[in-house]
Amino acid sequence: MKQFQVAYIPIGVPTFHLESAQEQFEQSIVLLRSVTEQAVVPEKMLLTIDDLKNYLDTIEPELIVLQNITFANAAYANEVLMRFQCPILLWTLREPVIDGGRLRLNSLTGAYSAANAIREFGRASFEYLYGAPQEAPVKKKIADTIAAAKLLHSLSQLKLAAVGHTPQGFGFGRALDGDLMKVFGVTLEAVEARELIDRARSYSEEECADCLEELRECSTALDETPRENLIGFSRIYKAYKEYVTEQGIGALASRCWPDFFTAYGTPVCAVLGMLNDMGIAASCEADVYGALSMYIGMQLTGKAVFFGDPVSLDEQENTITYWHCGTAACSLARNDTGAVIGVHPNRKIGPVMDFGCKPCAAVTLLRVGRKPDGTFRIFLAEGKALDKPKQFCGTSVVVEMKGNAGDIVSRSVKDGWEPHFVVIYASVPDQLEIIGSMLNIEVCRY
């Protein structure tokens, strides 16, 4: 597996004020190393094409931070562009002194030269940053760009499994392996739900005891579930766990109804919640793009995310309630109730998750969706998760929107978005904007 690497490439020429440039060079390295351990930096500023070529021979970047340490003509950028296809953050330094005397760096003119070369190479999507290393917005932009590039690297190594097919009328979640590979670099694997059901049935009760204990340790009210359904849960949970481990699956979109009620007798909802707490993004109703959206949120935050439908709008509170039948991760449960186990709201069979989700001062709403022409887009909105109890049977979270909730619902319905969204328990809109740019996907910010 190729390791993620950020390459700092400070280009310039020796005819400017090198003392000022050296100071900026040293401060830039300190900043980069404070943000990531994966930064590779040169021993000195790259002030000749030969110096640049020698340094480029030593790197294998997933992100390039191309900085005009002073002015440099397009030949420097061209050398970089001929070698690497990875995302680029073009960084312009602020002039350190404006006193009527000598122009110390002329970094901005160099940025125009480099950007012109980048566009000539057909690389329309690149990030741009202006400012000195000690400025807080500069550090945030670099951190956000590195996070986005790291996610892009992770996507290129992701194996996503579609377990069964979407139910009738849920075709919005179906994906073609070619689309996922071409646009996101993701490998799609398909397995029939019956294969995992058959695997689950092959286990003895004793073989699955530890799986049931896992659920017992992180939930409450489990003993109200009939014994046969507890055993059914433990077997199917073991089947899913072993499958994702054996196949190296990082995200999973699982068929749920009607098969797991009619053909197996126990819902898969709680299994998906447990997988999410394991770090495996797991959506229900076989929504592949929902699972992809979950994976993105989980990779950016290192935490479980909520997956559900927008089911209720309150204009006075400016809130939208997101809900689903019972697949939320136990770690998302409110502290006062814990992860309560209940029954599926329609089928009345358990175990499923049945609780309200915990509050959070800043959340981000995300959906990777497809337009009618087959191209992709990203839904993006911000808000905060309120301290609200369970709204309906199943799991729910009430989000007070940053924008006008009524307008967001009206616009997103008219814009034809899919009915599944992800609530990320962190503020990551800027990283998602950058990801969209790197993937050359439209970002629709509501």
Annotate the secondary structure layout.
Elements: E1 6-11, H1 18-35, E2 39-40, H2 49-56, E3 63-68, H3 74-83, E4 88-92, H4 107-120, E5 127-130, H5 136-155, E6 159-163, H6 177-184, E7 187-191, H7 193-201, H8 209-218, H9 227-247, E8 251-254, H10 259-262, H11 269-277, E9 281-283, H12 288-301, E10 306-314, E11 319-324, E12 341-342, E13 352-353, E14 360-370, E15 376-385, E16 395-401, H13 405-414, E17 421-424, H14 429-439, E18 442-445
Parallel strand pairs: 1-2, 1-3, 3-4, 4-5, 6-7, 6-8, 8-9, 15-18
Antiparallel strand pairs: 10-11, 10-17, 11-16, 12-13, 14-15, 14-17, 15-16
Helix pairs in contact: 2-3, 3-4, 5-14, 7-9, 8-9, 9-11
Write a concise keyword list for the protein shown above.
446 residues, alpha/beta, Rossmann fold, 2 domains, six-stranded antiparallel β-barrel, five-stranded parallel beta sheet, elongated
Task: Give an overview of the whole structure.
- The chain has helices spanning 18-35, 49-56, 74-83, 107-120, 136-155, 177-184, 193-201, 209-218, 227-247, 259-262, 269-277, 288-301, 405-414, 429-439, and strands at residues 6-11, 39-40, 63-68, 88-92, 127-130, 159-163, 187-191, 251-254, 281-283, 306-314, 319-324, 341-342, 352-353, 360-370, 376-385, 395-401, 421-424, 442-445.
- With 446 residues, the chain is α/β, with parallel strands linked by helices.
- The protein has a 6-stranded antiparallel beta barrel.
- A hairpin with a 5-residue loop joins strand 14 and strand 15.
- Helix 3 crosses helix 4 (107-120), helix 5 (136-155) packs across helix 14 (429-439) and helix 7 (193-201) packs across helix 9 (227-247).
- The longest helix is centred in the middle third of the chain and has 21 residues, at 227-247.
- The two termini are 37 Å apart.
